[in-house]
Design goal:
Elements lengths: L1 H12 L9 E5 L8 E2 L4 E5 H4 L8 H16 L7 E3 L5 H19 L8 H13 L14 H6 L3 H18 L1 H15 L2 E3 L1 H12 L3 H10 L3 E12 L2 E11 L12 E7 L6 E6 L2 E7 L5 E2 L8 E3 L2 H9 L6 H16 L7 H7 L7 H17 L4 H22 L9 H16 L3 H13 L9 H13 L3 H13 L3 H11 L5 H11 L9 H11 L1 H10 L1 H5 L7 H9 L6 H13 L6 H19 L1 H10 L18
Parallel strand pairs: 1-3, 4-5, 6-12
Antiparallel strand pairs: 2-3, 6-7, 7-10, 8-9, 8-11
C-alpha cells in the first residue's frame, strides 16, 4: 500500500520523492499522544499503528494502518521537503497531511467510503473549537509544553476540514496547481502559512488568503442560520444569517468569517455563495427541504427553523448519506448548546431506515453511546434511554448479524464491530450473553471468536466482567505470546464497569507487568468509565505515573483523565493540580478539561430533560428479564 500511496503523491505534488528509498520502521510499545514520526526517508511508527497479529485484526484496524501510512508519507513533502519555519505553523504540516491522507484513501480505496469519515473528523474539531478554551489554528508557541499541546484536534482535524473546504471553494485543479507551485518554489526551504495561500491564490483567482485567514487566524465555529425559505416557480429563495456557534458562551459577541456555502434542494445541483458577515440570500432550483452545506465540506454549523427541521426529518431517508451525517451532527451539537431541542436529533435517528448507509448507522451508534454517557451514574433514567438505544440498533444488528455475507462491503464489516461495541456498552442482554458464550467456547471452537470480531467480543466481556471473568482475562493476557495482542488485553482489563475491578486495573498499572508503555494507557482507559477514580488515583501516585509519561505530555495526560467527570468538585481538583504543578503557559489542557466538565454538567442539567420528555412520548420497549451474570465457567 505504501508503494501505491507514494506513486499517488508523486503524481499529485508534481515533484517526485527525491530520496532513493523510503523505510517504515515499527518499534514496540505505544504512546497516548502519537502513532508515528515522519523522519525523512525513515518513518518511525509504533508497531500497533502499522503491524497487526492476524489473530486480532479487524477491517477498521486495516484501514487505520493505511491512513497512518498515507499521513506520514504525505509529510515527506509537507514537513520534510518543505518545512514549517516554526511551531506556530504546525498545522501546515499536520492539517495538510491529515487532509492528504483522507483524499488519497478516498482515491485509492473508494469502496471504503472514507469520504464520509471527514464529516466525523470535522465534527470532532468543531466540538473542541466551540468551547471558550479553543485557540486559532495558527498559534504562537514558545515552550516545549506549548509545542506538545499544539498537537490537538484544532491542528489536525480543523486544519484538515479547512483545507477540504478551501479545495472545494477554488476547485480541485486550481488547488492542486497551487500546491505544486508551493512545493516547487519552497523545496528544501522553510515556510509560513501565507506562502501556501499566495501560491493557491495565484492560480485560483479567488480571495483565498482572506478566507483562509478568517479560519486560521481566529478561533471558533461559524453558525449559518437558514431563515425565510420561500418557494415560487420551482425555485426556493433562502435567507442565510451568519452568527457564531458556541457551547459555553451563549452571549458572546460573534466573530465574522467569509464562509463558502453550498445550498441544494433535494435532487438539485448545489448553488454556491460566499456569506460575508451579516446575511446573504440564495436561490436554488427545486422545492422541498433545502440542505445548507450540501456535501458537508463547509466548516460551520447549520441552524434550521423548526419547520425546516420537521421537513428534513420527514424526507431524511432520501437525503444523501454525507448530508445525513452532517445534519445529524449539527442537530445534536445545536441541541447540546440549547439552540434547538436536544430531542430533535432523536427525531432524525427515528427517521433513518434500517438499510441506510453503514457509515450512517455507525455514526448513530456512536451518537447513542455519547448520549448514554451523559446519563452515567443516573441509573433509572439511563436505563430508559438504553432501552431506546437498543431498540434503535437491534433491527440493524439483525440485518448485519454475526457472520459476514460473501462479498460484503468493508463498511458493513466496520459497522458490525461498532454495533457489538455499542450494544454491549448499552447493556444489551442478548449481546452480552452471546459475547460471553463465544468467549467460553473459544477453547474448543476456533470459529467462536473470528479474528475480525475478537477485540469487540473481548471488549463486551471485559466491560461487564465479574471478578472470576476478570481473573480469566488477566490469565489470558499473561499467557499471550503476541506482544500486540497482549497489549490490547491489558488495556481491555482497564475498561470494566465494576469499580472494584477498575481499582485492580489501576493497581496493576503501577507494576512492571503490563509493560512500560501500556501502563499509562490502562489508567486512561479506566478514566473512560471512572474519570474521578482514575484522576484521584493518578494524583495519589503522581511520581509513579509521571514516570510513565514523557515530560512535555504530562500537562495533557493528567487533565485528560478528569475531563469526563460529572462531579462539580472535579473542577476544583483540576484547577488545584494546574496551579500546583503546571506553568501558566502549560495549562491549556487543564483549562479545556475544566470547560468539558462544566459543559457536561450543563448538559445533564439543561438538556437531558428534553431527551427524557421525548422518551416519555415515544416509550421504548420494556426491559427483558434480568440476565444472571454468574461465572463464565458455569456456562
Amino acid at each position: 500500500s505504501s508503494q501505491a500511496v507514494l506513486h499517488e503523491y508523486n503524481q499529485y505534488f508534481g515533484t517526485a520523492y527525491p530520496l532513493p528509498k523510503l523505510d517504515t520502521v515499527a518499534g514496540p510499545g505505544s504512546s497516548r499522544f502519537f502513532s508515528a514520526m515522519e523522519n525523512w526517508g525513515a518513518i518511525m511508527t509504533f508497531e500497533h499503528s502499522i503491524l497487526f497479529d492476524p489473530a486480532m485484526l479487524s477491517e477498521a484496524d486495516r484501514q487505520r494502518a493505511f491512513g497512518t501510512a498515507a499521513h506520514e508519507i504525505s509529510h515527506q513533502w509537507f514537513g520534510d521537503l518543505v518545512t514549517m519555519s516554526w511551531w506556530d505553523d504546525l498545522w501546515l504540516n499536520e492539517g495538510f497531511a491529515s487532509w492528504m491522507a483522507g483524499r488519497t484513501t478516498e482515491r485509492l480505496h473508494p469502496e471504503w467510503k472514507t469520504e464520509l469519515d471527514a464529516v466525523e473528523s470535522r465534527g470532532a474539531a468543531m466540538n473542541r473549537d466551540s468551547l471558550a478554551t479553543t485557540h486559532p489554528v495558527l498559534q504562537h508557541v514558545e515552550t516545549v509544553e506549548q509545542t506538545s499541546q499544539a498537537f490537538d484536534r484544532i491542528t489536525y482535524a480543523k486544519g484538515r476540514a479547512v483545507i477540504r473546504m478551501l479545495e472545494s471553494y477554488v476547485g480541485d485543479e486550481a488547488w492542486r496547481n497551487g500546491v505544486r507551485r508551493y512545493i516547487e518554489k519552497h523545496a528544501y526551504g522553510n515556510t509560513v502559512t501565507d506562502d501556501l495561500w499566495r501560491e493557491v491564490e495565484a492560480v485560483a483567482d479567488k480571495p483565498i488568503t482572506a478566507i483562509a485567514g478568517d479560519f486560521t487566524q481566529q478561533p471558533g465555529v461559524p453558525l449559518i442560520a437558514a431563515e425565510e425559505a420561500t418557494c415560487s416557480g420551482g425555485k426556493t429563495r433562502l435567507r442565510l444569517v451568519q452568527r457564531e456557534f458556541s457551547r459555553d458562551r451563549p452571549g458572546k459577541p460573534p466573530l465574522s468569517w467569509r464562509v463558502p456555502v453550498a445550498v441544494a434542494a433535494p435532487g438539485g445541483e448545489p448553488v454556491h455563495a460566499l456569506v460575508t458577515g451579516g446575511t446573504a440570500t440564495v436561490t436554488v432550483p427545486g422545492c422541498g427541504p433545502v440542505i445548507v452545506n450540501a456535501g458537508q465540506v463547509g466548516y460551520f454549523r447549520t441552524l434550521y427553523t423548526p419547520l425546516q427541521v420537521a421537513a428534513i426529518a420527514k424526507s431524511f431517508a432520501a437525503i444523501p448519506a454525507v448530508d445525513q451525517l452532517g445534519i445529524l451532527a449539527d442537530s445534536w451539537a445545536l441541541g447540546l448548546a440549547g439552540l434547538q431541542p436536544a430531542s430533535d436529533a432523536l427525531d432524525l435517528i427515528a427517521a433513518i431506515p434500517v438499510d441506510a448507509d453503514p457509515k450512517v448507522w455507525a455514526n448513530v451508534a456512536g451518537m447513542l453511546a455519547s448520549i448514554d454517557d451523559y446519563y452515567r451514574g443516573d441509573g433509572a433514567r439511563q436505563e430508559t434511554f438504553r432501552r431506546f438505544g437498543i431498540a434503535v440498533l437491534t433491527p440493524v444488528w439483525k440485518r448485519v448479524g454475526w457472520n459476514p455475507a460473501a462479498g460484503e462491503p468493508e463498511p458493513v464489516a466496520i459497522l458490525r464491530n461498532q454495533l457489538i461495541d455499542t450494544l454491549g456498552a448499552l447493556g444489551d442482554r442478548e449481546m452480552i450473553a452471546e459475547a460471553r458464550r463465544r468467549y467460553v467456547a473459544k477453547a474448543g471452537d476456533p470459529t467462536a471468536m473470528p479474528a475480525a470480531l475478537r477485540r469487540s467480543i473481548l471488549l463486551v466481556v471485559a466491560t461487564h466482567a465479574d471478578a472470576a471473568t476478570w481473573d480469566r482475562l488477566l490469565a489470558d493476557a499473561r499467557a499471550e505470546k503476541s506482544p500486540l495482542v497482549k497489549d490490547r488485553l491489558y488495556r481491555l482489563l482497564a475498561g470494566t464497569v465494576d469499580e472494584g475491578l477498575a481499582r485492580r486495573a489501576l493497581e496493576l498499572a503501577l507494576t512492571p507487568e503490563p509493560g512500560a508503555t501500556v501502563k499509562a494507557s490502562m489508567i486512561a482507559v479506566v478514566s473512560d468509565l471512572h474519570p474521578d477514580l482514575a484522576f484521584d488515583f493518578a494524583l495519589a501516585h503522581r511520581t509513579a505515573v509521571e514516570a510513565m509519561v514523557d515530560g512535555p505530555s504530562q500537562s495533557r495526560y493528567f487533565p485528560a483523565l478528569a475531563s469526563g467527570s460529572a462531579d462539580p468538585a472535579m473542577i476544583g481538583k483540576v484547577n488545584a493540580y494546574a496551579s500546583a504543578h503546571l506553568a501558566a503557559s502549560a495549562r491549556r489542557d487543564a483549562e479545556t478539561a475544566v470547560a468539558s466538565i462544566a459543559d457536561r454538567l450543563r448538559v445533564r442539567r439543561d438538556r437531558l430533560p428534553a431527551i427524557d420528555a421525548w422518551l416519555e412520548r415515544h416509550p421504548p420497549p420494556p426491559p427483558p428479564a434480568p440476565l444472571a451474570l454468574g461465572r463464565l465457567a458455569d456456562r
